[in-house]
Design goal:
By secondary structure, the chain is an alpha/beta fold. It has 11 helices and 10 strands. The strands form 2 sheets. A 6-stranded mixed beta sheet has the order 1-2-10-7-8-9, with helices on both faces. A 4-stranded parallel beta sheet has the order 5-4-3-6, with helices on both faces. The protein starts with 19 loop residues before the first strand and ends in a 12-residue tail after the last helix. The structure holds pyridoxal-5'-phosphate. This is 1-aminocyclopropane-1-carboxylate deaminase/D-cysteine desulfhydrase.
Length: 338
């Protein structure tokens, strides 16, 4: 990783690099320019998808600091909680997961996977997602007082250390684009949740001096709330890695919460169906369907290449368990306003 000489200690979990594939049928369907899919759904660590990447650095750092219990959390459908439980197990440390959701806290595949990997689930008892990070810190403090060595990690693993995973992913992508297309990508489209993936991507692109535009599709929070979070995270990550600061002018955050977190609109489902029926991509309602809905609409309208030679890259972040859980469910009646 020539552009990133100061990456933190890493616990190898994934099978990286993930493939960067052509998308000829999708491209024909959209009538657009060069298009590639970054297959992080094939990241190779369980079904952790993109969350493999932050966990490699979070657990590498935890091991380096003698941590004996990882405390983190998320929702009942969260890919990250299942992935964190597995990663902690591989690192040889315990794991506690604070999970939001009241009556809805059912035996979802992701929670079942987390429990199968030996994690202790701490139900929050209500749907206030923002409380997870507070309770994670409180639980870590309790464990510390009891003589344990906990690491508290916010939802999604979105810390400066976790973001290093996507800084590395950016370098991986640029390397692949140069080899395959002879140019850096014109733009990258990805879903934006807790922000670590987008922040890391900005760091890796800036470190390489790439002019690539990042189109981040916010599925959880309004842009005015999540954009400063992403940029703060990116700045802290760049400072820790000793690289150039992220370029704000290369980030566009699109509000695509639609009917709500985890709920796809009819248009999102149509985009997922197009991805499935052209390139065999399985997208989840929470992240993939929404990011692809925005990307496909822009590509159809010819808006994403900005007249640049490089490809547009659609980042398939994974979400397999969630995608299979909700496949075939009816779309909610309400659409539109977040
Ligand atoms: C499948 C999938 N895609 C995208 C994201 C969003 O990534 P981030 O939280 O780093 O913004 C997540 C977060 O959990 C995810 O599970």
């Amino acid at each position: 990783m020539t552009w990133l000489p100061r990456l933190p200690p890493r616990l190898l979990l994934g099978t990286l690099p993930t493939p960067l594939v052509d998308a000829p049928r999708l491209r024909a369907e959209l009538g657009c320019g060069p298009l590639r899919i970054k297959r992080d759904d094939l990241a190779g660590f369980g079904i952790a998808g993109n969350k493999t990447r932050p966990l490699e650095y979070l657990l590498g750092d935890a091991q380096a600091h003698g941590v004996d219990v990882l405390v983190t959390g998320g929702g009942p459908d969260s890919n990250f909680v299942a992935a964190a439980a597995m990663a902690a197990r591989v690192a040889g440390i315990a794991c506690e997961l604070v999970v939001w959701g009241g009556a809805s806290l059912g035996p979802t595949p992701n929670l079942a996977l987390a429990e199968a990997a030996g994690a202790r689930l701490v139900p929050l008892g209500d749907d206030r997602r923002e409380r997870v990070d507070v309770v994670v810190s409180e639980r870590a403090a309790e464990l510390r007082a009891a003589g344990r060595r906990p690491l508290a990690v916010p939802r999604g693993g979105s810390t400066p250390v976790g973001a290093a995973g996507f800084a590395r992913a950016a370098a991986e992508l640029l390397d692949q684009c140069v080899r395959l297309d002879g140019a850096f990508p014109a733009s990258v489209v990805l879903p934006l949740g807790s922000g670590g993936s987008t922040a890391g991507l900005l760091v890796g692109l800036a470190a390489a001096g790439a002019d690539t535009m990042v189109l981040a599709v916010s599925v959880s929070r309004p842009p005015e709330e999540i954009t400063p979070t992403v940029l703060d995270l990116a700045r802290a990550c760049a400072a820790a890695l000793g690289t150039a600061p992220p370029r704000e002018d290369r980030l566009e955050v699109v509000d695509h919460r639609g009917p709500g977190f985890g709920r796809a609109s009819a248009a999102d489902r149509a985009a997922a169906a197009t991805a499935l029926c052209t390139e065999g991509l399985l997208l989840d309602d929470t992240y993939g369907a929404k990011a692809f809905a925005v990307a496909l609409a822009r590509l159809r309208a010819g808006l994403v290449h900005e007249g640049r030679p490089g490809p547009v890259v659609l980042w398939h972040t994974g979400g397999v368990a969630s995608a299979l859980t909700h496949l075939g469910e009816p779309v909610p009646a309400t659409t539109g306003a977040p």
